[in-house]
Amino acid sequence: MATPHATGAGAAPAPAGRGPSRLRELVPAAAGAALAAAALLLAGQIDQGPESAGIGPRWWPEVLAFTLLGLSVLHAALAWRRPAAAGDAPDPATREGALRLVAMLATVVGYGVLWYFIHFLVSTAVLVAALAYLGGGRGWKALIAFPAVTTAVLYVLFGVLLRVPL
Question: Which regions span the lipid bilayer (predicted)?
């Protein structure tokens, strides 16, 4: 009786070594590290002012950038150390997936433009609803309730509690 792991005439060989699956896992780690480096460079340009000896305006962006850098290194290390499984290769990229990614990036850029002209509450609700739709969300929960709750939480956190001008 044949086992599912036996290699027969129709079975595909297990991926050996550090194949495309590993490379595809290292790409997000490299992108995160690049984003963290850019954030650190931009945070270094923030004027601290003469009165801030401890925590200043540069502190929070630097904490986020170093956290992102640490998580990116951890992601890369775990992706490199993890043994490759037989069915571990991701599905090949499709045209629909690429178009969806480009549409999501364009939506985020559009959000920045929209926020300049329209209040935070409206533009954020539109952004979250558009991203939910592009991600496959359908129905009132995904397109109305989720954006409303997300926008409300962000507004309360940043606008009310942290008093960030939105």
Answer: 26-43, 63-80, 101-134, 140-162
Residue with tokens 């549409």: 103
Count the residues in the chain.
166
C-alpha to C-alpha distance for 72 and 65, rounded to whole angstroms: 10
Contacts of 154-158 with C-beta under 8 Å, sequence gap 24+, read: 154/124, 155/120, 155/121, 155/124
pLDDT tens column, 62-119: 999 999 999 999 999 998 887 766 666 667 889 999 999 999 999 999 999 999 999 9
- Cβ 2 vs Cβ 8: under 8 Å: yes
State the amino acid at position 75 in one-letter form.
H
User: Nearest-CA neighbor of 23 among 102, 84, 99, 64?
Assistant: 84
Q: Report yes or no on whether pTM surpasses 0.85.
A: no
Taking CA atoms, 3 is separated from 8, 10, 15, 155, in Å, by: 10, 13, 19, 56
Contact by Cβ (8 Å): 33, 69: yes
